[in-house]
Amino acid sequence: MTALVVGCTLIALIPLVAILLNVFIKGGGRLDVDIFTELPPPPLVKGGGMRNAFFGTLITLLIGSLLSVPIGILTAIYTVEFGRGTKAAGIVRFCTNVLSGVPSIIAGLFAYGIVVLTTGNFSAVAGGVALSVLMVPIVIRTVEEGLKSIPREIRLASIGVGANDFQTISRVVIPAVMPFIATGITLSLARAAGETAPLLFTALFSQFGFNGPWEPVATLSVLIYNFAISPYQNQQELAWVASLVIILLILFISIMSRYLTRRKVF
Question: Residues in domain ABC transmembrane type-1 (predicted)?
Fold first, then answer.
């Protein structure tokens, strides 16, 4: 049985290792400083970079975090601290579970209808809204688990010395679950960093640098989608480099998440 389990594990690792090796081999040769300082070149022109897509990805992730993190934390606090055992909390949890299983393209269509059609323009804000829809359930569920891990005696001790509910949550509970909050943020960022479908409907793409939050913006995932099907070799090379960069970005976020989950609150 040990040999069978080890064999199945190795078989499961074959696709992962093959993908990583392929991306590193084809994209590692072009990974240099110019990639992060120059714009994508025209067809048939060698060199260039993906500065706009790299910073566009960071901007859309930042907007998505600013929208999803406060909503996720406050929702988790309600379901665990105030609404525990109520029908409203059960409905919120059910909706969270449903939202976590919604295809990413649906989130893109939602943001398209809410932001793009309202403003009349594709934009980084619309892309951030689409990503926030995908990030919210991850933040909620992670913070909920953190709040549940705090012993009830801690809350009672705080109330026993004269603190009210707001003071107990803000000064005792929230500081204790900060590792879980940080973990929820990093996991949601790792999920959103590689999404393409929502950004096709919202942020679209731009060959130029960042012109403002209400203008179309390039992102790594959409750059990969556009350049991977391009007939020009230089753009195909950039697609491989972008794939490598986004893998390294997700790997960094995942390592940070693993580090934070190893920290114990009590």
Answer: 54-257
Tokens 């992670």 identify what position?
142
Q: Is 243 exposed, middle or buried (0-12, 13-18, 19+ CB in 10 A)?
A: buried
CA atoms within 13 A on the CB side of 86: 10
Predicted confidence (pLDDT) at residue 229 exceeds the cutoff of 60: yes
Nearest to 125 by CA among 138, 111, 139: 111
List the domain range (segments joined by +) for residue 82: 54-261
CATH code at position 221: 1.10.3720.10
Summarize pLDDT for 2-36 with one digit per residue, the tens: 999 999 999 999 998 999 899 999 888 888 888 99
Query: How remote is the C-alpha of 123 from its chain's centroid?
Result: 18
- Determine the 3-state secondary structure of 251 from DSSP: helix
Helix or strand holding residue 135 (H, E): helix 124-149
- Helices (runs of H) and strands (runs of E) counted in the chain: 14, 0
In sequence order, the 6+-apart residues with CB closer than 8 A to the CB of 22 are none
As for how many domains the chain has, the answer is: 1
Residue 207 located in a structural domain: yes
Residues in the chain: 266
User: pTM of the full predicted structure?
Assistant: 0.88
Q: How confident is the model at residue 263 (pLDDT cuts 50, 70, 90)?
A: low
Interatomic CA distance for residues 221 and 232, integer angstroms: 18
Task: Look at residue 24 and tell me if it is in a domain.
Answer: no
Residue reference for tokens 């392929």 = 22
Q: Which residues contact 113 (CB under 8 A, 6 or more apart)?
A: none
Query: Cβ neighbours of residue 114 under 8 Å, at least 6 residues apart?
Result: 129
